[in-house]
Amino acid sequence: MNALQIGMAAALMSLGAIGAASAMPCYVILDRNDVVIFRDTVAPFDLSDPKSPEAEALRQRGSHLLIADFDKCDSVGFISPTTGKTTASVEDIVSQLKPAIAPSTRSPGGIVAPAQ
């Protein structure tokens, strides 16, 4: 191989590594009819305990959890981390939101932002 071919081969291998690095774990739950009812980059429940109530409920419903690396993992569905319900109330959704701005504290003279 000449220097040009070696350079091209190295460039192609690095592009392949970049593509592989962009893949992320995606958690997908399929119901008993193979319909996607949940998909996200965050696990739907704690996977460290295979006998957890959430895992048991998944099995009882005849659903399957698929974990794979995908280039794109758009969120679909909702599963409550505490009850396993697949419907979300406003309280469920709001409780999972993270503030975009750090909370501030009020002082007698006005608002004082926390030290960073």
Describe it for me?
- This protein has 116 residues and is of the alpha+beta class.
- Helix content is 28%, strand content 22%.
- The protein has three helices and five strands.
- The protein has helices spanning 3-21, 53-60, 90-95; strands at 24-30, 36-40, 64-70, 105-107, 110-112.
- Strands 2-1-3 form a three-stranded antiparallel sheet, with no helix packed on it.
- A hairpin with a 5-residue loop joins strand 1 and strand 2 (36-40).
- The longest helix has 19 residues, at 3-21.
- The protein is globular.
Could you write a compact summary of the structure shown?
This protein is an alpha+beta fold and 116 residues long. It is built from three helices and five strands.
Question: Features of this protein?
Answer:
116 residues; alpha+beta; 3-stranded antiparallel sheet; two-stranded antiparallel sheet; 3 helices; 5 strands
Low-confidence sequence ranges = none
Q: Which bin fits the share of residues in helices? A: 25-40%
Oligomeric state of this protein: single chain
Q: What is the number of helices?
A: 3
Structural class: alpha+beta
| Rounded Rg | 22 Å
Q: What is the terminal-to-terminal distance?
A: 55 Å
Work out the strand percent: 15-25%
The strand order across the widest sheet is: 2-1-3
Identify the overall geometry: globular
Mean pLDDT: 73
- The topology string of helices and strands comes to HEEHEHEE
* Count of individual beta strands: 5
The largest pleated sheet is described as: 3 strands, antiparallel
